[in-house]
Structures are given as structure tokens and as C-alpha cells.
């Protein structure tokens, strides 16, 4: 140690004893290393687990939507097949209706026979109406190509435009489905 350093050491305790403010020697601090900024995850690199989760979630939603569509489609097909089966059964009964109608239009001397045919026809109409069948096509109705099949045309100024003059076969409708078009003769 050099003399100057010894004097400094001795002068510091003496100054403390005398009540004088002590002058502390500052020791040089080691150089600070540059502090690293806290690591921030880069936004450009998504988490692979998050990607996998999103992919699975998306596939789950798609599967649920496909199942819902399948369920709705199956229900609609089931309803349509029921309606189509019902319409097919009604279509097979229509020749009976036509024959009973022809029998009612024939003149007969037997009142009991005529009454029996009328009761049978009334029962058949009651059953058809109970099934939701609408019978259409009367003389005097307006011609509608969506409901009627015009097989004959008549020019008569006394009758209105597109008026049904004669009905050869009545039409039958089940809900919105046409089971059979009415076969008619149309005027003008």
C-alpha cells in the first residue's frame, strides 16, 4: 500500500470520531450487462396446439352441421314418402269412384239399387275427405291449366271465357299434390 492510501484509511475513522461527515470512497461498480428485454412470443408463429384445436373444432362443427342436414333431409323424405304412398293408394281407388259416379248417372227403375249406390258413393267421398283429399272440377268453374286437363274445346258466345262446360273425370288433390287432373271441356 502506498502512503496516500494509508492516510486516507486513517483519516476516515478519525473523521467519524470527530463528528464530521464521513466521506465514503466509492468503489467502481462492475460494468452492467445489457438487460435482455422479456421474451415476447412472435405473433407470426401460431401455437401448434391452438391450430390443432381449431382444426378439430371446425371439423366437429362441420360434422354436426352435416348430421343436422341429414336429419332434416331424412325427415323430409319420410314425409314425402308417406304422402306419395297415400297419393298412390288414393289413385288406385279412383276407378271405383268413377264407376260409382257412372252408376249414379244411369237411369234405373230400382230405387233400392240407386239408394245403395248413393250410400256407397257417400261413404267413399267421406273416406277420401277424411284422408285430406279435395275433389275439384265442376261445370261453371274457371279453367286452370295447373288443375284441369282440357280435352275438348267449345266455341259458344253465351258462355264465359275459359269456363268449364263439361267434366269427364273429376280431379283429386292431396294437400298441394295433384293426384289426378280433372278432364274437362272448355268454352272459348
Q: What is the average per-residue confidence, as pLDDT, rounded to a whole number?
A: 85
Largest sheet composition: 3 strands, antiparallel
In which range does the helix fraction lie?
Answer: 40-55%
Report the strand count.
6
Rg: 51 Å
Total individual domains: 1
Give the overall shape, derived from the CA principal axes.
elongated
Task: Quote the CATH topology.
Answer: Nucleotide Exchange Factor Grpe, Chain A, domain 2
Termini distance?
138 Å
Q: What is the N-to-C order of secondary-structure elements (H for helix, E for strand)?
A: HHHEEEEEE
CATH architecture: Roll
Task: Bin the strand percentage.
Answer: 15-25%
Unreliable spans: none
Strand order of the largest sheet: 1-4-5
What's the total helix number? 3
Structural class: alpha+beta
Please identify the top-level CATH class: Mainly Beta
CATH 4th-level superfamily: Head domain of nucleotide exchange factor GrpE
